[in-house]
Write a structure and sequence with these properties.
Length: 286
C-alpha cells in the first residue's frame, strides 16, 4: 500500500523501534511515529499498535490513538483557526499537530461570507489521491437530514443558532436544538457569514423549518425619544431627572421638546426593558 493511501485511516502495525519519546510502528513497510505519552505502558518490540495515520504539518508520518473530531464519513463542528483567502480556512481537526483545510472551492464566492477565526463549521474528513487531508463543508441537504421537524409551538422563543448557508433571499441556520431556521434578508440586522453564531427569535414555521428574525421585539426597540431620555439620564448628576409620567405637559415640552404622550411612551418602553425606574418624583437610570 502506498503511503498516501494510508493517510486518514485507522490502521495497525508492528513496533519496530523505540526512543524515550516515541514508538515506531511499521505498516506495509512504512514507519510511523507514535507518542509514548498516549500509551498507558511502554510497548515492546514486536507489539501491535493501532491508530489514526496521517502526515503532520511538518511532513512527518504519525500514528495516534487520539482520534480526530472529524473522520471520513463522520461529521462534526470544527473551529476555524486560520483564514487564507488564497486557499481556504484551516480548522481544528482534533489532531495536535495538524489542522485541515476547507478549500475555497467549498466556500462562498464572497470573502465577506467566509467564516472568521473562532467560528465553527460542520465538516467531514476527505483524503485526496496525494494523501492530503481536507475538510468537506456540510451542505444544506445534510443539515436537512439531521434536523427536527419544526412547528409554531416554538413561536416567539429565542434560539441560539449557527449560519450554515447564505442565499440572496436570506440565511439558513441550524439551531442548538437542531431545527433548520431561515432568516429572511429583511429580518437580518446586517451581513452574516458561514459559521457565525447568533441568537434569533422564532416568528413562525413553514416547510418543517423555523422562520426567524434578528430584529428586536416591538417593546425592545428604543425609539429616538427613548434614546434622548437615556442620553439625558447618562449625563445627569446621580443618574436621575426630576421628570416622570406624572410631570406637567408644559414642563416636559419645555425641557425635552416633545409631548407628554411621547414622553410617557418612551418611559414605558424603557421601563419594560428594565433600563429605568421611577420613584419619589424622579426617573432613575438603572
Amino acid at each position: 500500500m502506498e503511503t498516501a493511501a494510508m493517510y486518514g485511516n485507522v490502521l495497525s502495525g508492528t513496533v519496530t523501534d523505540l526512543n524515550k519519546d516515541e514508538a515506531f510502528v511499521q505498516i506495509s513497510g512504512i514507519t510511523f511515529a507514535m507518542d509514548l505519552s498516549e500509551l498507558d505502558e511502554i510497548p515492546e518490540i514486536g507489539d501491535e499498535l493501532a491508530g489514526f495515520v496521517y502526515e503532520t504539518q511538518s511532513h512527518k508520518n504519525k500514528i495516534t490513538t487520539i482520534m480526530p473530531k472529524v473522520m471520513q464519513g463522520i461529521w462534526d463542528y470544527a473551529e476555524v483557526k486560520v483564514v487564507r483567502t488564497d486557499l481556504g480556512v484551516f480548522v481544528d481537526s482534533g489532531l495536535k499537530d495538524k489542522d485541515i483545510v476547507v478549500s475555497l472551492d467549498d466556500l462562498p464566492l464572497e470573502h465577506s461570507e467566509w467564516p472568521k477565526k473562532g467560528d465553527k463549521v460542520m465538516v467531514e474528513l476527505t483524503v485526496d489521491h496525494k494523501g492530503r487531508l481536507w475538510g468537506k463543508l456540510a451542505d444544506l441537504n445534510l443539515y436537512m437530514q439531521l434536523a427536527r421537524s419544526a412547528s409554531d409551538k416554538e413561536k416567539n422563543r429565542d434560539e441560539k443558532c449557527r449560519v450554515i448557508a447564505i442565499r440572496n433571499s436570506g440565511t439558513f441556520v441550524m439551531t442548538d436544538s437542531y431545527y433548520i431556521g431561515f432568516i429572511h434578508a429583511n429580518e437580518q440586522d446586517g451581513p452574516l457569514r458561514i459559521g457565525q453564531e447568533l441568537t434569533a427569535r422564532v416568528i413562525g414555521s413553514s416547510h418543517r423549518r423555523l422562520n426567524l428574525s434578528m430584529r428586536p421585539r416591538a417593546f425592545e426597540e428604543i425609539t429616538p425619544d427613548a434614546e434622548m431620555i437615556m442620553a439625558v439620564l447618562e449625563h445627569a448628576r446621580d443618574k436621575r431627572i426630576p421628570y416622570t409620567d406624572k410631570s406637567a405637559p408644559d414642563d416636559i415640552k419645555e425641557y425635552f421638546g416633545i409631548s407628554k404622550g411621547s414622553f410617557k411612551r418612551a418611559l414605558g418602553n424603557l421601563m419594560k426593558q428594565g433600563k429605568i425606574e421611577q420613584k419619589d418624583g424622579y426617573t432613575y437610570l438603572k
